[in-house]
Amino acid sequence: MLADRILAVERSPFYSIMDLAAGRKDCIYLQLGEPDFTTPPHILEAVKKALDAGHTHYGPDRGDPELRRLIAGKIEKDHGAKYNWEDELLITAGGQAGLHIAVMAVANPGDEIIILVPYYPPYLANAQLAGSKAVFVELKSENDFIPDPAAIRRAITPKTKAMVILSPNNPTGAIYPEDVLGEIVKIAQEHNVTIIADEVYDSFVYSDDQYKSLVSFPGAKDVVVQVNSFSKVYAMTGLRVGYLAASKERLLQFLKYHHTVNISANVPSQKACITALKGPQDCVAEMKEAYQKRRDVVVERLNDIPGVHCFTPQGAFYAFADIRELGVPSLDLVQYLVKEAGVVLTNGSGFGCEGFVRVSYAADIAKIEEAMDRMKKAIVNMPVK
Ligand SMILES: Cc1ncc(COP(=O)(O)O)c(C=O)c1O
Question: First CA to last CA across the chain, in angstroms?
Fold first, then answer.
């Protein structure tokens, strides 16, 4: 009665954890995949103004022309890459829609898509929806979850159509070095494989000289599709605006899919994105500084818990803590911590990676400190299995 492609997609165990947490009044939520900051006031004001000005009708399917011009300018300024605003950019309903469109437009049923593990769960769901096979390449904790290009090369077969690369990473917080990304681009060029470059966390990088966008490599446009978003950078997840940057030929095909599903992205929200890009960027700098401080606290406090180890993430707002020494599956630990400590984390197994938990530091420092106190106590007193 229902299609195999949707039945293949599993609902995340995350929801059962949230149900468990709902039973306690004092829970501290460190599972958030979105900024805890309020959307900056000038951006909110721009949405209200757009509504009052009557921008409540369909917009151009490719997206607001002024917004596309601004994004093209930003990509050139930040990464030295030229994208024609008229036909190489598409405004989408968040990065999430961008990812889906890119996979559906690139991969055929039976094709293979390389996904690095741990992965952002929708990558697997998108491969399943496309009827493609997810080919997993493990990222090793001993390498701080930096990919090994040789392992990616080994995973390539004549059926490989795409690979998804995410830096800064969710859930690990890793940032991939330039030489590694350069190798990945070369592999994609040699084998004619599309790189779906998810760069939605690119504004939250804690060491300036490290981050390199995949669009910045020579000849990248032949193989790279950039997925980006306004959600994280401007703390505006609910306004649902993202974009795809790709060659004209690919973008035209993405447009057909986007038009079929969305017609256009949210029009008032796009006006707010114009204000966001034209306005002062101090709000981004302030959020970044706050995340960095929280990161330092989280990493120090996690490493202070017996049996827990955490490397220092360089970007996004997640720490991926190694709990293997505790000898319990990550979902069991997450459930135990909700019940015993009222702290909500995300199990590594939900990202395809057992033995780890994701700690989001999109929460204020006082809450983080309190959560770490509670976690330490609960873990120290955890019954031995
Ligand atoms: C890695 C990654 N990509 C894409 C998204 C989608 O974000 P949005 O659709 O809000 O732009 C998220 C959201 O959590 C994410 O973590």
Answer: 43
228 - beta bridge partners? 243
What phi and psi, each to the nearest 5 degrees, are found at residue 173? 80, 5
Is 270 close to ligand 1, i.e. is its CB under 6 Å away?
no
Q: Is 346 in the pocket of ligand 1 (CB under 6 A)?
A: no
**Rounded CA separation 336/320 (Å):** 18
Q: How far is the CA of 225 from the centre of ligand 1 (A)?
A: 15
Report the phi/psi class of residue 21: left, alpha or beta, with left for phi > 0 and alpha for psi in -120 to 50: alpha
Q: What is the mean pLDDT of residues 331-341?
A: 95
CB atoms within 10 A of CB 207: 11
Residue 200 CA, ligand 1 centroid: distance in Å: 6
* pLDDT at residue 243 greater than cutoff 70: yes
Contact indicator for 31, 346 with CB cutoff of 8 Å: yes
CA torsion sign for 227, 231, 237, 242 is negative
Q: What is the pLDDT of residues 97-140, one digit of tens each?
A: 999 999 999 999 999 999 999 999 999 999 999 999 999 999 99
Q: Indicate whether this model's pTM tops 0.90.
A: yes
Give every strand in the sheet of 356-360, ordered side by side: 318-322, 356-360, 346-347
- At residue 385 the predicted structure's pLDDT band, cuts being 50, 70 and 90, is low
- Per the CB < 8 A criterion, the answer to whether 164 and 196 are in contact is yes
The architecture in CATH of the region 41-278 reads: 3-Layer(aba) Sandwich (3.40)
Q: Of 34, 54, 37, give the one whose Cα is nearest residue 271.
A: 54
Q: 176 CB less than 6 Å from ligand 1?
A: no
For the chain, the structural domain boundaries read 4-39+282-380, 41-278
Asked if the domains at 4-39+282-380 and 41-278 fall in one CATH topology, the answer is: no
Give the containing element (helix H, strand E) for 249: helix 248-262
User: Model confidence at 178, in pLDDT bands (50, 70, 90)?
Assistant: very high
Candidates 1.10.3720.10, 3.20.20.80, 3.90.1150.10, 3.40.50.2300; correct CATH number of 4-39+282-380?
3.90.1150.10
Distance 318 CA to ligand 1 centre (A): 13
Indicate the average pLDDT of the chain. 96
